[in-house]
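TICKET #2291
ISSUE: user wants both folds in one file
ATTACHMENT 1:
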Amino acid sequence: MRWLIAARAVNRLGAFSLSFLTVLMVSQYGVSEATAGLVTAAFGLATVPSRLVGGRVSDRLGRRRTIVIGLAGCAVAQLGIAAADSLVTTVTFVVFLGLVFELYEPPSQAMIADAVGAPERVRAYGLLNAALAAAGMGAGLIAAGLGRWDLRWLFVADAVTCLVCALVVQRVLPGDPPRVAPFSDRADHVAPWRDGLLMALLASGTLFALVYLQIMITLPLSMAHRGLQPADAGILFTTSALTIVLGQPLLRFRPLAVLPTPAAFATGYTLLAVGLAGYGATHSLGAHVAPTIVWSLGDLILMGRVYALVADLAPADGTGRYMAVYGISWGIAGVFAPVAGTQLLQDMGATTLWLTMSGACLALALTQPFLARTVSARTSPHSLERSPSSSSRS
């Protein structure tokens, strides 16, 4: 598990390129912000089948193979975006990137779920996200530096880290176990789409992803609207990552260590709401720092918890597919978030954008605790309430 986490951390070093995709299209090809948002939405739509295929293939053909294929495909697509000389070519590679982008997520998450027992899953997923946050500190600085030079180099950096991650996974992780009949119907009894509780988690996860993607995608544009340098969003991403890394010891303090999962959801989403509302009132780079720290503390509390819930719900031999179905929340949000965010920004301004996102977080602070209690009642009555707080994409 440690090698998988380390490989994903290396991959994270170049993972902020997509945050600047809309800025690249606006600056390079002169398209409107709304049009750039539609292209990013096409990427999000393509990630939906990518995630589902990744979950099914990982349960059938093997997790290591699926991870390597997905990362290699991402590298090819990122290099294509960097080398594209027209909007049509860029869009083609953006869609291709979406089709391979989520292949490696379900097997990565399933491998972690298989490596630890249910009581330790929150901690394990938190360790993954803490490692990604640590790498994110470097990623934000890379984005700020390369973005000032040429935004295309962000995609080159991302491609390189994908290839390095794929190499580490291929050379170091245990091989996939042999399967007598890899395309048999052994796992066809797994029916995640019929699990009503998983569907409820999918709905709430989609709303969270809609909010989170505004930070990743729309924040650079929001800063440009206020006369700031879009590449400086990388500094805020680094601030967020630093907050999550330095905040890890806080999770060992008794008030947080014994915090029940429902209370953790309520607290985390409330902090997210406060931080994003702060973005609505800021007009300088320095003023963006405090809200970034606040919402990042909320993210710290939330990280790992939803994935642990999904892993607890999954039946034997179905972890990858359950993770895949839940994970399409990011694909669905990826379709609507760029369109909604750019339209809100273009028509209503940055203040309305961030206040709307803050309101969505408050809604999640009310609904997610109920879902956590329901999962706890269905699986293990005490495991979720006693799980230590830990650190998502949540």
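ATTACHMENT 2:
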Amino acid sequence: MQIQMSTSSSAAHIILPYFEQADGLQLPELYGGEAIPKKLFTGEVGAIRHLPQGDRLFLLVGLGPKEKANFEEMKGSFRKITAKQSDFFREPVTLYLDGSHTEESLQAAALGLWMGTYRLDFYKKPKADQVDFSQVSLELVAPELQQAAEILQQSAAIWKGQKRCLTLVDQPAHQVTPAFMAETVQQLGQDYGFEVRVFDAEQAREIGLEAFLAVGQGSARPPAFIIADYVHPDARIHVGLVGKGVTFDTGGYNIKTAGMHHMKCDMGGAAAVIGALEAAAAAALPIRLTTILPCVENAIGPSAFLPSDVIGSYSGKTIEVIDTDAEGRLILADGLYYMQKHFQPELLIDLATLTGSSVGTFGYACAALFSTDKTLENSLMEAGMSVGERVWPLPLWDLYGKEMESDMADIKNYHGKPFAGAITAAKFLQAFTEGHEKWAHLDIAGTAFGDSAFAKSKHATGFGVHLLFNLLQNHVDHGK
């Protein structure tokens, strides 16, 4: 769906969002200024009502009290329109924002409307009468928002990244293989003009990416170690992002016993990083953004790595494998060390659907955050909270690192105990960051994939893309 700026409304169908007011609402002066019956609509959050007036049909959208309005709820209200009211778009549509709205509510409106057009029907035969949103054009009239065009352009870039993330996570594992991930990033490099390099198994073996290779060695689908380097000529900061890309996770010989059909989502960290990369490139942010995506399939086969194996790593550290289902941290270990050795970014951040422990701590509403730098920690929290992508810190105390000590190797990949699993996993990763002073790890296991009112099955959320974009944008604007 295209959203285009306009100075006047010529459409038959009009979307009118309202903040709740107990003393009643009225139509904008442009549309006659008539009072809206209180019995019909008062602007309560999530309410959607139709109001016909002559040849026009108004769609009234409730955002709740303005003083309590938040981005997440506003976005959800607009998402309902395109997700649940698709017939409304069979006619030309205008979105009208009066003076009560801000740039924040405009962005929530745009991203919500776009998100509502997203469907999981990749392999379904199209219905003859369904609305083709790729052919829908919506005009935006926002006469009192001076930055409307700029916000709309930025929102379009964010949506490109979010849609990319959603599509990668939701499609099945036979489609989204490590090779597919590599092809996706290579195409983005061609589209936006940044450098992409992909190491296959032989090249990875030559340079010593041993932990990365160990995880994928049981699969018939070859691994791909993907490096993308977006460099704006006026770059103001260099950020390194590493994303866990396990395109399907059986658990290996420590096989999963429940919910394995959801394990196509175990590349949610890599998908979020790819989405953030595309959003940054589409918005032409003046930064350098280096991304590393170690992509593998963790399968069981004659060559699969085993519990009790001792494997190498790119850092030179040896790793005792206690649990083959603690595989994401192994590929991230090589990704983090490679990033630090070859690129030395000012900020180093990794995202991963890493542990069930983070879900046990925060449920499905918040991701676990670990950081060696308080300023970066606060910046990530601020960037996420403002758009409903919540992250909250947990400690990186050295005493948890002792849990990962091994008698046989330099470190073990799992402490084997039913507590502090997210923290000990973070301490494992920290051992491969070469003491980076501004490193953060986001465990997004509970937030990248879940239930909602918009599908019958669990599906991708796009978590992390907007958070990372905000972080990058904030550094450009304020250096924080």
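RESOLUTION: both attachments delivered.
EXTRA DETAIL ON ATTACHMENT 2: The two ends are 34 Å apart (CA to CA).
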